[in-house]
Structure formats: C-alpha cells, structure tokens
Amino acid sequence: MTCILQTALPYDVAAHPALPGIAPLDERDWLHADEAFAAQMAERARLLAQCRESVLAVTPGADAAAQELLDFVVDWLDRHAAGYVVSSGRVRRPDGVTVALDRADPMGTLGLLVQEDLCLMEKPEGGAEHVLTAAVLCFPASWRLADKIGRPLLAIHDPVPEYDANLARRVQRLFDGVRPGRPLWRYNALAYADAALHQPRSRSAPRTLTDRPSEEHPYLRSERQCVLRLPRTRACVFSIHTYVLARDQAAIGAS
Questions:
Q1: Is residue 138 helix, strand or coil?
Q2: For the chain, first and last CA: distance in Å?
Q3: How far apart are CA 8 and CA 183, in angstroms?
Q4: Which residues does 56 contact at the CB level (< 8 Å), separation at least 6?
Q5: Which H/E stretch holds residue 58?
Q6: Cα 26–Cα 238–Cα 34 angle in degrees, nearest 5
Q7: Res 209: pLDDT
Q8: Bridge partners of 50?
Q9: What is the DSSP letter of 182?
Q10: How far is residue 82 CA from its own chain's centroid?
C-alpha cells in the first residue's frame, strides 16, 4: 500500500511536556486539513467501506451525542474551515469530494468529512469516569476500537504503563472541567516500523515503544489530540489528527 506521509508537524515534538501535557486551544483552530488531506480521506473512505465494523462503533444511548457532534462539526466547518462548502444536505470538501449528510449515520458521515478520528466520551449519571460511547476510528495507533468501546477512561488506557491511578485522576478532572467553547489539546509522538495509518493491535500483543526514529523504526507517528465539550448533550469529543513522517523529516531526529 502507498505510504501517506506528511512533511512537517504544526508543533515541536522535541518539547516533551510532562503528562498529560494539556494546553488550552482556540476553538477556531480545532480541526486541521494538511497536505495529506486528499490521500488520508481516500483511505478513510476505503476503510469505512471495507471494514466498517472495525473502525466505527456506536453504543445504545449515544445517538443524541452523535447527532449533536455531526451538527457541531458541520457548523464549525461552515464558519472556520477554508476550502469547505456547506450547503443544504451536503458538504464539499477541500479536495472537491461532496459528502451527503446522512443523519441516520452521523459517525459514518463524520468519518468522510474530516481528517480527524472522533471519539465520544460520556459520563453516565452517577458514574465516576467518562465512557467511550461512540467513535469513528480509522487510524488506530496500536489499539482496537472493539477493545475500548463502552469502557471507561482507566480501562481504555490499559495497558499503558504511564497511565497510573494518579494520572487517571488528573485526566478525569480534565474531562470533567472542559467547558463548551474552551477546548484543550495535547500531542504524542512514537516511532513506528510501518507507515500504515490503520494499525490496530490487541491489548495482549507485545509492543516496543520509542520516540526516536531509527533504521528499525523509520517513521515518526504523532497525534494531535483535542478534547472539546458539546454544549447540549455535554458529551466530550476526543479528536485525533494523525501525522506520519519519514525519519529524515522528523524534528526530533534519528537515534
């Protein structure tokens, strides 16, 4: 399969902020369209057509939040996104592709509209943690949607070693505290042997984590992750914009 690569990142991955590394974000800068837009969107369409059950999930009761997210994204694109044209019942993307707004399939429609993967996190009445209730996740980085859907924050991050009980409490406070119109963002960066965007991996599969590209891991994969609160349902949106760069383009260099 052809590699889909970017040539630069919109942030400095060498900074290494302490976990969870969250910073405020201007809502106008929420979603991005970069030089890999057309190629990534074509890959998203292929995945949604050929393996939809692996990249999209909606739990019972998540329909209201999914519908609100579709409305929110379309309105955001209309107001803030260069190259998008929003009209009645359809959106034309910057690459010229027109997407029909299927209200019966909000998460599937969202997967064809923007480069970001979108996860809905909702806190049940009386619950202690936000739960992953719906997602379109075309570009998983070493995890599987089937393992995470319907699970709370702490379970979602198992088996991430750094995600201990203390960090879990801090992240939960961030989800509890994020306000409509005041999103937050962070990034990560890991070296990968394979440039493929769709890299699902089971929780039990062994993994070697490094942030230094090398001959064995010649690609830098970085996710720009944002947390945004929907005003009506109060669901949190966790968006993931995936960048993959060859190691000679990666700002942190090779080991």
A1: coil
A2: 27
A3: 24
A4: 48, 107, 108, 111, 135, 136, 137, 145
A5: strand 56-58
A6: 60
A7: 55
A8: none
A9: B
A10: 20
Tokens 């960048």 sit at which residue? 243
CA neighbor of 49 nearest in space, from 198, 170, 181: 198
Residue count (the chain): 255
How is residue 20 written in tokens?
A: 């969870």
* Cα separation values, 197 from 28, 120, 127, Å: 26, 21, 34
pLDDT given at position 248? 80
- Euclidean distance between CA atoms 17 and 21, whole angstroms: 5
Is the pLDDT at 13 greater than 60, yes or no? yes
Measured in degrees and rounded to the nearest 5, phi and psi for residue 210 equal: -150, 150
**Which of these, 25, 66, 235, 48, lies nearest to 139 by C-alpha position?**
48
pLDDT at 18 over 80: no
- Name the percent of the chain lying above pLDDT 70: 88
- Tokens standing for residue 83: 């190259």
Six token digits for residue 31: 């979603």
Instruction: Tell me which amino acid residue 144 is.
Output: R
pLDDT higher for 167 or 212? 167
Contact 72, 78 (CB under 8 A): no
Do residues 113 and 86 make contact, with C-beta atoms less than 8 angstroms apart? no
Single out the residue of 229, 224, 226 nearest to residue 177, CA to CA: 229
CA distance 198 to 141: 7
Tokens of 104: 């019966």
Residues 149-178 pLDDT 10s? 999 987 786 655 555 667 778 888 999 999
